Amino acid sequence: MSSTKPLITVTLKFDPDEMARRGRIGAYARLSKYDSADLTAPARAAFLDKFEQAVDPDGILPPQERQRRATYARKAHFIRLARLSAAARSKKPRASPTTAPELSDEDAA
What's the whole-model pTM score? Predict the structure, then answer.
């Protein structure tokens, strides 16, 4: 008699709601241990640096002037995003207020 191990079946189907719950558990556990500002600081610094690089790619401006220009480049970026968002919202059909259907005398009985 040769001993064979039972086969293990792996299912790759995931319930989206369960995965969302697991993700929230992980996020809350991480936030309970660390300050969220510390967790996102490298990403924020890289994002802001992108604007400084855009306004002074050669690095020839004085730091104060580079930062001033980067501030306005960032403001322009967010205003542009807001404008595009408003334009996208205006193209969506608006939901009309739903009214209850009127009941006839026969329906009311």
Answer: 0.58
